[in-house]
């Protein structure tokens, strides 16, 4: 079980962190609060600088809030087309503000606009995952918002609290930091009850915890505290800790990572899967098998390499791009499971060939690897669970 006795140690073990910033933090009297964006980016730059190997993904709200002021609307748009148009006006300014703020640290940022449909389809899920992994490996900061322009009810995340929990699962994050305009989760809505008390740690999102949070957001937010608690429930189910913390407090991120007692920490009770194994634990059953030669087995088991077509002997089953597939050695032992970059019929054509030949053989090339290492977990690792925090 994880514990918070040594908060500093707990937070310092979190290498891959999703930071969600709510409209409540980013909205000021003149629209987008650029000072807030600068304060947060200064801290994120320092957080990344302090230790090599740390990675941050930002999920940012604020497009609608920013658009409202730009257009000069007197109130929040009510209809979906009005919200979408307002977000389209505000998103550019939101992104430009983050980009400008990280520019002084020579940190590049990338914009990703997603809908829940993008993560529901294997093909798109894999692309979103590959894009995020590539950006992180290049040291570029992904900055994500829901793609408000195209969302209709059925493909909405609902709000960025849900989106941040799903992104955390997608990339196997070690922690989600949810920055909002309260100190954390109170035992009842602090707007309605001035004696509401802050809850420091939650291990399980049960009816009692759900009853603390109301769905009414502040004047600029969406979903209110209830959506944050529901997002925390998703995170806990994947073994990922989440903290709700006051985003407007000075040096909030640095103080959290220094171990200061702040916010409400949602801490998984069960032992957690290490980092990127989280997503694998949530994968559907393997859709097929790839039988590998001894060289490929060695490359995967011992050298931490990706799977290339040249090492594949046999393809079993019919599956599409993004499907989870098992890798077996020639004796039938499971080497591991990963997501395939090619359809089974395509692998049939490229197996045993060098990656340079892929395009000639099937008419296009997605990548040199049939399974990228980032999307692969060894059989031994799948069983293994760890005590303590991530990377313990
Ligand atoms: N039990 C609770 N504890 C803390 N805040 C609560 C609670 N219930 C409701 N709230 C309200 O939820 C609001 C945060 O939700 P929201 O406005 O959606 O923020 P954000 O824009 O950061 O996503 C706070 O302003 C707070 O007043
Ligand atoms: N996509 C919307 C944010 C929606 C949302 O979830 O807002 P919030 O509750 O403030 O995190 C925007 O950029 O305005």
Automatic annotation (TrEMBL):
Residues 288-371 form the PUA domain. GO terms for cellular component: cytosol. Pathway: Amino-acid biosynthesis; L-proline biosynthesis; L-glutamate 5-semialdehyde from L-glutamate: step 1/2. The lineage of its organism: Bacteria, Pseudomonadati, Thermodesulfobacteriota, Syntrophobacteria, Syntrophobacterales. Pfam families: AA_kinase, PUA. Its main location: cytoplasm. It comes from the Bacteria. GO terms for molecular function: ATP binding; glutamate 5-kinase activity; RNA binding. Belongs to the glutamate 5-kinase family. InterPro entries: AceGlu_kinase-like_sf, Asp/Glu/Uridylate_kinase, G5K_ProB, Glu/AcGlu_kinase, Glu_5kinase, Glu_5kinase/COase_Synthase, Glutamate_5-kinase_CS, PUA. This is Glutamate 5-kinase. It is an enzyme of class 2 (transferase).
């Amino acid at each position: 079980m994880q514990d918070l006795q040594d908060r500093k140690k707990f937070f310092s073990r979190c290498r891959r962190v999703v930071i969600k910033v709510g409209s409540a933090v980013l909205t000021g009297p003149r629209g987008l609060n650029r000072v807030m964006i600068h304060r947060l980016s200064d801290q994120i730059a320092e957080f990344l600088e302090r230790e090599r190997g740390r990675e941050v993904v930002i999920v940012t709200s604020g497009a609608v809030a920013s658009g409202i002021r730009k257009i000069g609307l007197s109130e929040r748009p009510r209809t979906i087309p009005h919200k979408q148009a307002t977000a389209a006006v505000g998103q550019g300014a939101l992104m430009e503000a983050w980009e400008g703020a990280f520019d002084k640290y020579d940190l590049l940022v990338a914009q990703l606009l997603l809908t829940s449909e993008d993560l529901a389809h294997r093909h798109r899920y894999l692309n979103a995952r590959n894009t995020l992994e590539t950006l992180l490996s290049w040291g570029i900061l992904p900055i994500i918002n829901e793609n408000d322009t195209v969302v209709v009810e059925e493909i909405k995340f609902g709000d960025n609290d849900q989106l941040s929990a799903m992104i955390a699962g997608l990339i196997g994050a070690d922690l989600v930091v949810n920055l909002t305009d309260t100190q954390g989760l109170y035992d009842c809505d602090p707007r309605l009850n001035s004696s509401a008390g802050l809850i420091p740690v939650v291990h399980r999102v049960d009816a009692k915890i759900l009853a603390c949070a109301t769905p009414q957001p502040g004047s600029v937010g969406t979903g209110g505290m209830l959506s944050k608690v529901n997002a925390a429930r998703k995170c806990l189910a994947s073994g990922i800790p989440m903290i709700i913390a006051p985003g407007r407090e000075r040096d909030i991120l640095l103080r959290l990572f220094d171990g200061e007692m702040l916010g409400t920490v949602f801490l998984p009770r069960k032992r957690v899967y290490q980092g990127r194994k989280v997503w694998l634990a949530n994968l559907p059953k393997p859709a097929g098998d790839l039988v590998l030669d001894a060289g490929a087995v060695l490359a995967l088991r011992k050298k931490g390499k990706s799977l290339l077509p040249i090492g594949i002997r046999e393809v079993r089953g019919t599956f599409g791009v993004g499907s989870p597939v098992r890798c077996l050695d020639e004796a039938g032992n499971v080497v591991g499971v990963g997501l395939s970059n090619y359809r089974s019929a395509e692998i049939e054509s490229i197996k045993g060939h060098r990656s340079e030949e892929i395009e000639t053989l099937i008419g296009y090339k997605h990548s040199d690897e049939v399974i990228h290492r980032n999307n692969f977990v060894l059989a031994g690792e799948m069983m293994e669970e760890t005590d303590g925090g991530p990377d313990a």
